DNA sequence: TTGAAAGCGCTAACAA
DNA sequence: TTGTTAGCGCTTTCAA
């Protein structure tokens, strides 16, 4: 508290016997200073432990060196992988990242977005599913538009309803592939367990499931869709419900890995063997999926890359029409899926 | 681009026909404005989509509404859980979080710290092990000291060498407990697999192992310590090495869950049964530990709470002597540990 | 190559 | 209760 205040640019300038303008130029490595002076200023700054005030700088220069990142929940591996990718690129470029949770709640998301804008971040990366509720999306969209109009850059990951640049995982294709896989194994009584139907990611993945079903001539009514939170616990709840309501099922198609892990744990506690008694598939391929036992058949999304790509996109100037980068979703067949038992 | 610039406080004030001072007071909910005027100003601000400029505010007011968070790697569940806790509390208090990676590299950590300070965060939460290298710690410490002297607050999670407030998991106790557990099961040929010996967390946990060994009268030379990266892959490498160099081992004591998961996967691929042929224990109790098969015996650390606690501590004024909050480490016995096979 | 000075958008004395 | 005004620490013209 009593402590010496942090040295300011004036202090450095004074110590070096130059004006603040010169000191500023020297430290930011701009033109117009003799190398000798620049050297001296830098040395003095270093020795005094000078650290420039970003607030003053961005207020004066109108520039921003920070990026905003909105995730639903960072403890969810899907988002922590994305965040990791964003942070890697940010680290390389000397940008700081401001992260916040939306908690999958459009109201909170809106508030967080406003906070980021107040903090004058230069770019915003919004990760995670959008909402089917048009009212919710509208207010989010309005905020984002205002931001881009003021010169900000926005890139969305996994949501396509805004006219922003976007990194889009091939959710529909991936879901179609994993559904085909199950059908090819001979399953006819599949149950889908999923997070909130109000999320666009869920809608997209469900579309893929239905496409595969249609291809195989199976009416979609034959495949129950059980909704629960998009978490491990949700997976447990949904699996329990499936076991009770749809006892004839031979496969659980979870719309993310977390739910699949929950399913696996319920099945184990019921002594149902996977895949002999019941096949289970996930979606995302979180790092632990390969290490589960049985290892999880799932759809791989390159999450870290999605984060990296998103920030790289954001750092490039905006184009006339929004860019869309589709990230491939690839089926990873592992041990949790197999042919249905004969019944 | 061409866009209308974001409205500023003057614009609001003008629209409302009041001075900036009044507008400022009205919007920040401070005293000294009639409710009628305050109402009107707020309405106008809302309708114009006004969002205050944090840079200007903190430059003028000398206040900061953001907190810095340093983690080794956010994709690591240990850190993503901590981050989640920090973000929850920050969200409640309307603070924004600036997160950065240190990558377990003291040089990078130092740079990140400086960036946070440049961004004038009010508090810094440093999560993750410190370094045994005194030179590295010294420069970090110097930076942190300067920051606190300038009025900043620092809280460390899991590192105790700085004279800052700290949230400390009971690493030594936890390691002692899990080692005792293995010894009580009858294991005598235990191998420890661990991340870098240069990390204080590793040193602390190793101390716990050695204490338990000493209690049981087992010379520490009997227990090989295999060093590898503190990751799942590191766990694989280390386990492979153990299998080759110390074939008589009956238990793998991993110093974090990630490495334990790697060990599990190697053992499975070698068709060694856990725990019949080999027991495995972890440390941290990351969320997935309970869902592995076999479920992982480990030491639970309340990671989210640690994050929450850390920020709460940071938001309280500094005390004369640094506060230390010890978080309990509790042994969680699950299915990956059992008596050694008779040999 | 250097310096003086005008802001950036806001808060907080101080006056009225 | 309200307004005026002086900065906060920096960047950036414009002159020298």
Main features:
alpha/beta, 434 Repressor (Amino-terminal Domain), Rossmann fold, elongated, DNA-binding, homodimer, 4-stranded parallel sheet
List the quaternary state of the chains.
Answer: homodimer
Going by CATH, the architecture of the domain at 171-301 in chain A would be 3-Layer(aba) Sandwich
Calculate Rg of chain A over CA atoms: 25 Å
- In N-to-C order, the SSE pattern of chain A is HHHHEHEHEHEEHEHEHEHEEHEE
* Global outline of chain A: elongated
DSSP summary: helix tally of chain A = 12
Distance from N terminus to C terminus of chain A (CA atoms, Å) equals 75 Å
The greatest interface between two protein chains, and residues involved on each side, is:
A-B, 64 and 64 residues
Strand tally of chain A: 12
State the strand order across the main sheet of chain A.
2-1-3-4-5-11
Helix content range of chain A: 40-55%
* Biggest sheet descriptor of chain A: 6 strands, parallel
CATH topology of the domain at 171-301 in chain A: Rossmann fold
The CATH homologous superfamily of the domain at 171-301 in chain A is termed Response regulator
Average of pLDDT of chain A: 93
What is the CATH level 1 assignment of the domain at 171-301 in chain A? Alpha Beta
């Amino acid at each position: 508290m009593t402590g010496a205040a942090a040295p300011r640019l004036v202090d450095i300038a004074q110590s070096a016997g130059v004006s603040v303008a010169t000191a500023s130029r020297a430290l930011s490595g701009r033109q117009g200073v003799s190398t000798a002076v620049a050297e001296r200023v830098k040395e003095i700054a270093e020795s005094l432990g000078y650290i420039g005030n970003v607030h003053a700088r961005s207020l004066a220069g109108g520039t921003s060196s920070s990026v905003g990142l909105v995730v639903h929940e960072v403890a969810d591996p899907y988002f922590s992988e994305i965040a990791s990718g964003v942070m890697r690129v940010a680290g390389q470029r000397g940008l700081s990242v401001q992260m916040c949770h939306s908690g999958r709640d459009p109201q909170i998301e809106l508030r967080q977005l406003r906070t980021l804008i107040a903090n004058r971040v230069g770019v915003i990366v919004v990760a995670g599913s959008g909402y089917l509720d048009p009212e919710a999306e509208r207010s989010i969209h309005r905020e984002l538009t205002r931001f881009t109009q003021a010169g900000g850059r926005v890139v969305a990951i996994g949501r396509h309803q805004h006219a922003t640049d976007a990194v889009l995982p091939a959710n529909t294709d991936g879901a179609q592939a994993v559904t085909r896989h199950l059908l090819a194994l001979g399953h006819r009584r599949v149950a889908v367990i999923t997070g909130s139907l109000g999320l666009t990611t869920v809608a997209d993945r469900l579309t893929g499931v239905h496409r595969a079903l249609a291809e195989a001539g199976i009416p979609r009514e034959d495949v129950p869709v059980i909704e629960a939170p998009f978490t491990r616990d949700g997976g447990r709840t949904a699996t329990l419900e499936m076991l009770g309501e749809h006892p004839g099922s031979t496969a659980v198609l979870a719309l993310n890995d977390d739910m699949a892990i929950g399913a696996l744990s319920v099945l184990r506690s019921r002594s149902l063997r996977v895949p002999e008694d019941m096949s289970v598939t996930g979606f995302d391929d979180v790092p632990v999926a390969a290490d589960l036992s049985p290892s999880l058949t799932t759809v791989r999304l390159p999450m870290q890359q999605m984060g990296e790509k998103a920030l790289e996109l954001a750092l490039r100037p905006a184009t006339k029409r929004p860019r869309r980068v589709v990230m491939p979703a690839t089926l990873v067949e592992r041990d949790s899926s197999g042919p249905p038992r004969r019944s």
